[in-house]
Structures are given as C-alpha cells and as structure tokens.
C-alpha cells in the first residue's frame, strides 16, 4: 500500500475528518444535526445556536478546514455557492430586506473555532436596535427548531 507523506493533513484530518469537540464536524457527520437545514457533498448549512438575528445561518465545509485560505479555491467556491442557496431559502422563508454575509478569519478578527464557516445573517430595517439585546438572550431550542423546519421546507423548494 502506498502512503503519501502529508503531515500537515494531520492538523485537519483526524477520525475520518472530524475534529473532536468541533460542533460543525459533529453537525456535518449527522451526530448533532438538530439545527442543520441543508447539506450537499462538500458543505453543511445550519442555524447558529446563538444567533445575531432570526434565521442566522452558518455555512461550513464538511471537512475540518481552519480558514478560507486553507479551503482552497474549490472549497471557497463551494462555500459561496452554498451561501447563495442559503440566501435564497431565507428570502423565500423570511423575506429579509438585506443580508450580512461574511467570514471571521483569525482570532484577531473574531474567529472562535478552527473550522471555517460563512455567516449568512438576514436583516430587516431597524433590527439593529434590538439585535444586541436578542444576541445576549438565550434562544429557546423550540424556537430554533421551528425556524429550522421553515428553512428546511424552503431549501427543499429551491430549484
Ligand atoms: Zn470541524
């Protein structure tokens, strides 16, 4: 059996690609998928458990890749394709007036986990007034589950 010597892969790949304690890996593997609303061959899309706004989605590669640079051109493109689908599903389900779409790269920029993810946050006029308030409020799981159900329906209806 041939073996490629690729020690850098060990940083990202362990236990068949899932990093212990990484909630995005767990979601991608179907181990903790209550908030997952969509997935494809290379990405998973889930509700943020601590949302900035109702419908706040996170789009991540299935592989435990630390950031956009490590994801490569293909991985980054796949994330953007999935993010666009997430925007369409949110548009259909919640009719937002705008979106914030972005990535925190590095701890200095606010990245808190080593599994790259793209935030897709639906916005409505005036929501900044209460966003800091709801951002600190514990969101009931039932509410997130209801939002997840709405979004799964919207994703399923996308062409
Ligand atoms: Zn991970």
From TrEMBL:
Which residues does the record give as substrate binding sites? 48, 119
| Record flagged with keyword Nucleotide-binding | yes
Q: Name one GO molecular function term.
A: hydrolase activity
Q: Which PROSITE patterns match?
A: HIT_1, HIT_2
Q: Which UniProt keywords apply?
A: Hydrolase, Nucleotide-binding
Q: Which CDD domains match?
A: FHIT (cd01275)
Record domain HIT: where: 23-130
Q: Which domain of life is it from?
A: Bacteria
What is this protein identified as?
HIT domain-containing protein
The record lists the lineage as:
Bacteria, Bacillati, Candidatus Dormiibacterota, Candidatus Dormibacteria, Candidatus Aeolococcales
